[in-house]
Amino acid sequence: MAAGDVLFAAGDVTYDLFVVLAGEVRIIERHGQPGETVITKYGRSQFLGEIGLLTGQRAYLSAVVSTAGRVLRVPVEQVRLVMAQELSLSELILRTFLLRHSILTGLGSGLTLIGSRFDPGTRRLLEVLARNRLASRWLELEGSPDAEAMLRELDVPVRDLPIVVVPGGPLLRNPGSRELLDALGLSGPGDTDPSGACDLLVVGAGPAGPAAAVYGASEGMATVLAEDTALGGQAGTSSRIENYLGFPAGLSGEELAARAALQAQKFGVRIKLAAKAVSLSSEAGVHRVRFDDAEAITAKSVIIATGARYNRLDRLAEFEGVGVYYAATQMEAQACRARPVVIVGGGNSAGQAALFLSRSSSEVHVIIRGETLETSMSRYLIDQIERDPRIIVTRRTQIIALLGKDQLDGVELLDASRQQTSALAVCGLFVFIGAQPSTQWLAGQLAEDTHGFLLTGGNIPQAQLDDADRIPLFLETSRPGVFAVGDVRSRSVKRAATAIGEGSMAVRLVFERLQATGTAVADPPRVGGDGRNAT
User: Fold this and answer.
1) How do residues 304-353 score in pLDDT, each as one tens digit?
2) What's phi and psi for 124, nearest 5 deg?
3) In CATH terms, are 111-184 and 196-309+437-517 the same topology?
4) Where are the domains of the chain?
5) Radius of gyration (Cα) for the chain, nearest Å?
6) Are strands 296-304 and 286-291 parallel, antiparallel or unpaired?
7) Fold of the domain built from segment(s) 316-431
8) Would you say the C-alpha torsion 174, 178, 179, 182 has a positive or negative sign?
9) DSSP state, 478?
10) pTM as predicted
11) C-alpha to C-alpha distance for 41 and 63, rounded to whole angstroms
């Protein structure tokens, strides 16, 4: 390779992994444009790339040879093969890619979003970027001189905002989620069409959904995984899950989602992203799910893993994305750096968020209505919170109002024991309270409990069964062949490990139902003599 050679450029649909054998390669942002910036350099025995190489995201930086030498080029498909077969290399590559992605996110590399904090479109795009863990920066129209300068450079009028600038790609004007992910190459593989018929359709991707999809595909079922927001779901935004078996040091939600995506690719799961389910219909034992992009998928069995969303509080919409958040990722932490924040909620998600935010915020206030965290949070999280001097837990208290006009300046608290109010100055409010099941698209067709969560198995009243002659299986809903797993299921344990277990278990039950109806397409998951699934 000669000095000046470009190994890959921003906007490339895909790129390969390069190992530098001799010489030097620079990673450059805005290569050949005003404001060109060298992000980092790689020398002998170092390899290039970040997690986007594995997820299929288009390149948003350029790799340019700065000192002549030699490189080893490994095609991306070969990288995936190596990672599937070589455990030590897989761990090295994945951890390195995730760390680099975290660094790039902190630098604000990648996409540029320009929009007003008061625009619902801007807030929607901020959530899409955060939930999909996309490296990006936000130039706020009201407070950023860079925003005005870039709008002049691009000749974009304010009425067209929000816009997303894709390095090496198109300028997107108020894009929908699907349009944005399409521009990044993330909405799904372009050479396969997930619409049509399949053996198993999994609706919802985190974390029960990918578990079901991976297990189903590995057992020979033609499987489609559809998700409206991002792989990993709520768990994908967790800073660290420390009680997941097999990971003594814990793992982040991003790592969990990345590993799940790699396994799904390995077993041939067809993934459909930015696809919101809008209806379910069934006829003669075949189920059809229609999505908001007008596509429909027909399947012999459906597993619903759409989860639940945290409750919204009054007046939150005014500050969502600009002071009020429903996840604590690196992007939110950057927005609140060195300033106080408040978390409302006492579950594990709230605890993980508190510990993560305490690394960068000056103070983290955790507000709970009850007497203690012990009734809703794991002991290991409570112990860490009690040892962290930056985390302050306030009990028997609730938030009754948000303070601020153009931005969140604080919250008003009510001490229930003394019936006294007080103001707490914070720059960010993180909401982790309650949950509403994502079942509106089902239009009441399946049996639900009083809170809207789906009933399964023996918990379904006889009168609500679609077919009274068939006894529903453990995770089966009131309609034969339609199953529910994870947070969307009534009486489920709201933990990532439990959801993953349910997703895997549901596939075995799918086989049982298909065998009972004479439509099984493969042998059921093998069971050893001790009753456990063979591996």
Assistant:
1) 999 988 776 666 777 877 789 888 888 888 889 999 999 999 999 999 99
2) -65, -45
3) no
4) 6-107, 111-184, 196-309+437-517, 316-431
5) 24
6) antiparallel
7) FAD/NAD(P)-binding domain (3.50.50)
8) positive
9) S
10) 0.84
11) 9
Between the CA of residue 304 and those of 247, 282, 440, what are the distances in Å?
A: 27, 14, 12
Q: What is the reported pLDDT for 318?
A: 74
* DSSP tag of 243: S
3-state secondary structure of 218: helix
The domain 196-309+437-517 having CATH identifier 3.50.50.60: the answer here is yes
- Say if residue 72 is exposed, middle or buried (CB neighbours under 10 Å; 0-12, 13-18, 19+): exposed
CA distance 336 to 313: 20
**pLDDT at 247 > cutoff 90:** no
What is the pLDDT, as a whole number, of residue 529?
45
Are 51 and 36 in contact by the 8 Å Cβ rule? The answer is no
* CATH number of this structure's domain 6-107: 2.60.120.10
Structure confidence by residue, pLDDT tens digits, 411-447: 999 999 999 999 999 999 999 987 789 999 999 999 9
Backbone angles phi, psi at 224, to 5 degrees: -120, 135
State how far the Cα of 454 lies from the Cα of 490, in Å rounded to an integer: 5
Amino acid at 116: S
The CATH number, out of the four listed (3.20.20.140, 3.40.30.10, 3.90.1150.10, 3.30.1490.190), of the domain defined by the range 111-184: 3.40.30.10
- Could you tell me if 27 and 62 are in contact, meaning their C-beta atoms sit under 8 angstroms apart? yes
Residue 496: its pLDDT value, please?
Answer: 87
pLDDT over 70, % of the chain: 94
Q: Please, what is the average pLDDT of the chain?
A: 90
| Cα gap 99→85, rounded to integer Å | 22
What does the alpha-carbon distance between residue 57 and residue 421 come to, in Å, rounded to a whole number?
49
**By three-state DSSP, how is residue 14 classified?**
coil
Angle between helices 208-218 and 253-266 (to 10 degrees): 20
